[in-house]
Amino acid sequence: QVQLVESGGGLVRPGGSLRLSCVASESGLKAMAWYRQAPGNQRDYVAIISRSGATRYADSVKGRFTISRDDAKNSVYLQMNSLKPEDTAVYYCNAPYMGGNLWGQGTQVTVSS
């Protein structure tokens, strides 16, 4: 069973930055993505990167977040800049796999002064 493990969350002030990391236990994953879920809300898509490096972002994070990947390290990253209180959520790594979806355990990001 392939596993995804996120890290890098924490508490940051508005306007600050964080970098999330997600490591897969195996290589060869195709698209990889980040989602987030705030308390009481559904899990929402944040960004996705294809195997070729093509990226797409939710409108709410365009220009502030950057997704990248390093296939040599089986990793995907989310650089988050100009953070806002509304970015507060648990952030999950996701990868389509064998007709289903892999999810990490999540990492908490809190943006507060």
Number of helices: 0
Give the total of beta strands: 11
Q: Taking Cα atoms only, what radius of gyration do you get, to the nearest Å?
A: 13 Å
Task: Note the overall shape.
Answer: globular
Proportion in helices: under 10%
Distance between the termini: 40 Å
Low-confidence stretches: none
Find the structural class using helix and strand composition.
Answer: mainly beta
Please tell me about this protein's structure:
This protein is mainly β. 0% of the residues lie in helices and 52% in strands. The protein has strands spanning 4-7, 10-12, 18-24, 32-37, 44-49, 55-57, 65-70, 75-80, 89-97, 100-103, 107-111. The strands form two sheets. Strands 2, 4, 5, 6, 9, 10 and 11 form a seven-stranded mixed β-sheet that branches. A four-stranded antiparallel β-sheet has the order 1-3-8-7, with no helix packed on it. Strand 7 and strand 8 (75-80) form a beta hairpin. The N and C termini lie far apart (40 Å). 31% of the residues are buried. The mean pLDDT is 96.
How is this structure best summarized?
By secondary structure, the protein is an all-beta fold.
Entry keywords:
single chain; 113 residues; mainly beta; four-stranded antiparallel beta sheet; 11 strands; 0% helix
Write the layout of secondary structure elements.
Layout: E1 4-7, E2 10-12, E3 18-24, E4 32-37, E5 44-49, E6 55-57, E7 65-70, E8 75-80, E9 89-97, E10 100-103, E11 107-111
Parallel strand pairs: 2-11
Antiparallel strand pairs: 1-3, 3-8, 4-5, 4-9, 5-6, 7-8, 9-10, 9-11
